[in-house]
Amino acid sequence: MKKINIWAWIVLLIGMVYFFLPLISTLEFSMKMIKDRYTFEAFRVAFTDRAFFEHFGYSVLWALLTIFFSTLLVVPTAYWVHWKLPKARPYVEFVTLMPFVVPAVVLTFGLIRLYGRPPILLIGSPILLIAGYIVLSLPYMFRAVDTGLRSIDVRTLTEAALSLGAGWGTILTKVIFPNLRVAILSGVFLTFAIVMGEFTFASLLAWPAFGPYMEEIGSMRAYTPQALSLVSFLLTWASIGLLQWIGRGRVQEQVAGAH
Amino acid sequence: MTFLEINNVSKKFGATEAVSDFNLKIEKGELVSFLGPSGCGKTTTLRMVAGFEMPTGGRIVMDGRDITEMPPNQRDVGMVFQSYALFPNMTVAGNIGFGLKVMKKSPDETQKRVEEMLGLINMPEYAQRYPYQLSGGQQQRVALARALALRPDVLLLDEPLSALDAKIRVSLRAEIRAIQRKLGITAIYVTHDQEEALSLSDRVVVMNAGKMEQVGTPFEIYNFPQTAFVASFVGTLNSTEAEVVDPAKGIISVGGIQFTSAEDLKNRKQGEKVRMSIRPERLSFASEQKKDNVVDCTIENITFLGSVVRIQVKIGSVKFNMDTFNNPFLELPKIGDKDQVTCSKEAVLVLDS
Amino acid sequence: MSAVEKISQPPARKVDWNWLGIAPFFLFAIVFLFLPSLSIFYRSFQANDGSLTFDNIIALFTVRDIINAYKTSLTISLITAVGGAIFGFLLAYAVVLGGLPRGIRTFMSTFSGVASNFAGVPLAFAFIATMGNAGLVTRWIEGIFNISTRELGFSIYNMWGLSIVYMYFQFPLMVLIMAPALDGLRREWREACENLGGNSYHYWRYVAFPILMPSLLGTMILLFGNAFGAYATAYAFSGSFINLVTILIGAQIQGDVLYNPGLGNALALGMIFIMGMCMAGYAWMQQRAARWLR
After folding, report:
1. Which residues neighbour B182 within 8 Å (Cβ) at sequence distance 6 or greater?
2. How distant is the Cα of A122 from the closest Cα of chain C, in angstroms?
3. What single-letter DSSP state applies at residue C155?
4. Tens digit of pLDDT per residue, chain C (294 long)?
5. Beta bridge partners of residue B12, listed in sequence order
6. With an 8 Å Cβ cutoff, are C198 and B73 in contact?
7. What is the dihedral of CA B283, B285, B291, B297, to 10 degrees?
């Protein structure tokens, strides 16, 4: 198989060109804010805009809320399925596949129709937004925790702990969660990356967030949107990088993102 | 008539020498085993014969042709893998007929040959099954048939039975040997199970850390081991430190207790430290029949192993295992009894320390 | 209870209280996932005044703008699914089996995760900076060939331009899913094939591709669905220049010109239907793949 080596390098090269050219272009473009010079002025302007911090901050808030509620929802459920109710697995897995069948646009449409007007008026609070984000991150969160649980053979561990006299509190905090730390963290970082870059829900549900902010800037200004794009890219890279570093090889396919 | 020659073959991976100076001439129709622990180089040597690894030194000659540099798909060898390696997307018939399809044989010829092979492994109704529908033993038989379908000159088997249950292993290895004999095909069988090697082979090559320790028939390897490694790896063995007392008479001392050995100790010096070894089944109670050596002992432990009863005796300060055939009417001694055991001169092996 | 008593009792009609444990999860799913989807379903058959009608569904197949939107969406999805599958597979192959240094595989893994999450607004901007009127590549090409794209009326804000953008998350998705599948190709299969006289061609034609086919097809279907449901990237890149189903639905939500709730529902329903078929196809393929690669 060594003979195919040259083709592998060629394919890799083409791939790298395709992937890096837009990044380079964006960087180049963003540095042309001041005529005839390459500077980081665009970045400075972007970061000193108060609206930037506002919207970025909101996105962080949404991300944290999503992570919190998502973890609360997914982890016990996954644990329950493994420990007590394996029969429920197909149903639970079906639910985690649904977000792919109902894309963000469509879900927003349904949510607004159903809950966006009297008698149920949820539009005033970010409940719909967070709910949407939770749905978006559900597949990844569940799969991460599920894989983690599978690799530690929950049943046996729980039974061993029970036979040694441990109560449920001890079991959860001292046996299960420490072993799940990596899995949960990987789900957390992935959710963070997804929410930070999300546009559809935030835009259509009219909430302040980083995604719509970028889009707005893009239609009004030049150079700063590109700078922000790169910031977004680096942020995603950091999240995924941390995820990989923490997981160290165990979480490859789960990383495939939303659009 | 030598069919396969492995001459001075060695293989280096980076700085590690996986195989060094392997020399063997295999006769046509002979089944030779490569026996040894994990990492001893037996699989690497086999893979060099198959063509999946290239020797860093030496030549391999088959039927007069130097095949050392020949790619694997041009050699006339059939390989049976440890993990069966059946193509999961093809039926049993598809797998067996694959080699023929590659050679562009006619469908009729392929079908006939496949049926022939299915008959050989005694699985005629399984032609349309898929590998995932078969048990481990069945898959391995199909793998064997697939390798033999092309009438290879040499059959290579890489630990074919290690993934199977003990019972299946025993019956399948007899089947493999029967088929090999029936076809008269030259074969190399790699295994770490010495029972397999002893029961199957015409000759056994015992390997350790990339080197050949001994080559011989199973009988020779078992009864006349030439190195301490072979003696301990093949079969069970009692082995302990000893000292040469009288080289001319062949007397050694184990912790003060003297044994006479039939081995030639003339080249050794008095007082030289050696290793005394004796097979458990060569020891027996002196009350039955007295042989060359008679020594006092204490009964330490008695283990019932089924067809064999293993009695652990203490001779001086050293513990020895003694195996006797199970006999329901046998009056066994009790633990703590004092007794006498005996063995012949030939049973006492003296090896380098 | 003694054993005898236990046997003589009729089978207990016990409520399995264990199901309560996952009730919150299902409750959430029902409220925020299933109910909205269901409402979309039945409101598709509602006219503006609330009466039952098939007009909306019929409009899906008759209104020209809608037909075009579906056509464009389906075409783009097809292009990026097939294109993404082909090059993505080549990339996965290069990284896993191409004999490249191990570090490259790890790098590709991380980068694929990043690239597939980069989709949306930032991705669109990045490509505008690359291929747009003032983009880097555009300027290079203009410089090399001495032309002006603007005069030639050449624009990237069409289906093909968007396809190129979509590839940025389609390639990585393919790589992320196919790399493990390629790992599953056991070395012994290749060796057995060579041992039986076959070469690379035989191996790929009779062994590797047939084994990989369910994964390949399944992932291609996934790519299709992925592209079909994309909104953010399309919106940020070409806004309303390109007529896509997702853009249309988005317009409905924002109370655009053609404000017609029933129609919006029908559009959404159409999408759910297509995506549902995709997921079903993908799941079916996964099952077949699992059977062989067990």
Report:
1. none
2. 12
3. -
4. 455 554 555 555 556 677 777 888 999 999 998 988 888 888 887 776 777 877 777 877 888 888 888 999 999 999 999 999 999 999 999 998 888 888 888 888 888 888 888 888 889 989 888 888 778 888 888 788 777 766 666 677 888 889 999 999 999 989 988 888 888 888 999 999 999 999 999 999 999 999 898 889 888 998 999 899 999 999 988 877 888 999 888 888 877 655 566 777 888 888 888 988 888 888 888 887 777 665
5. B17
6. yes
7. 80
Query: CA C83 to CA C174: how far, in whole Å?
Result: 10
Domain ranges of chain A: 48-253
Q: Within this chain, do residues C16 and C155 fall inside the same structural domain, yes or no?
A: no
ipTM of predicted complex: 0.82
- CB of B237 within 8 A of CB of B321? no
Residue C213: closest CA among chain B residues belongs to which residue? Answer: B89
Contacts with C221 (C-beta within 8 Å, 6 or more apart), sequence order: C81, C278, C281, C282, C285
Check whether residue C200 and residue C85 sit in a common domain: yes
Task: Report the CATH number at residue C106.
Answer: 1.10.3720.10
Q: B31-35 and B186-191 as β-strands: parallel, antiparallel, unpaired?
A: parallel
Dihedral sign from CA coordinates of C160, C166, C168, C174: negative
- Best of C193, C195, C203, C211 to substitute, by most chain B Cβ atoms within 10 angstroms, is C195
Judge: domain A48-253, CATH 1.10.10.10.
no
Which range marks the domain in which residue C134 is found? 63-293
Total of domains in chain C: 2
**Residue B48 · residue B19 · CB < 8 Å:** yes
Question: Looking at the whole model, is its pTM more than 0.90?
Answer: no
| Chain B nearest CA to C95, separation (Å) | 22
Using an 8 Å Cβ cutoff, are B287 and B297 in contact?
A: no
- With residue A16 as reference, give the H or E element that holds it: helix A5-30
Q: Tell me the torsion sign for CA atoms B123, B125, B127, B133.
A: negative
C:237-256 residues touching chain A, CB 8 A cutoff: 246, 249-250, 252-254
B51 contacts in C (CB within 8 Å)?
A: 194
User: Roughly how many angstroms between the first and final C-alpha of chain A, as a whole number?
Assistant: 36
Residue among C90, C130, C180 nearest A12 (CA): C90
In this structure, is residue C225 part of a structural domain?
yes
In this complex, whether B and A touch, counting 3 or more CB pairs under 8 angstroms, is no
H or E stretch covering B296:
strand B293-304
Do C113 and C245 lie in one domain? The reply is yes
Question: Which of B 54-73 lie inside 8 A of C, CB atoms?
Answer: 71-73
Q: Do chains A and C touch (3 or more CB pairs under 8 A)?
A: yes
Rounded Cα–Cα distance for residues A252 and B245 (Å):
68
Chain C, residues 183-242, CB within 8 A of chain B, namely 186, 188-189, 191-199, 202, 206-207, 210-211
- Please check whether residue C53 lies inside any domain of the structure: no
CB C83 within 8 A of CB C174: no
Residues in C closer than 8 angstroms to B88, CB to CB, are 211, 292-294
Put simply, the chain C residues between 174 and 213 with a CB less than 8 A from any chain A CB are: 176-177, 179-180, 190
Contacts 24+ apart (CB under 8 A), C11-17: none
SS3 B254: strand
Please indicate whether, in this complex, the C-beta atoms of B102 and C186 are within 8 angstroms of each other. Answer: no
C91 with C216, same domain? Answer: yes
In a domain, C105, yes or no: yes
- The three-point CA angle B192-B195-B200 to 5° equals 95
Residues C51 and B183: their CA atoms lie apart, in Å, by: 83
How many angstroms from the chain centroid is the CA of residue A162? Answer: 35
Closest Cβ–Cβ partner in C189, C199, C292 for B73: C199
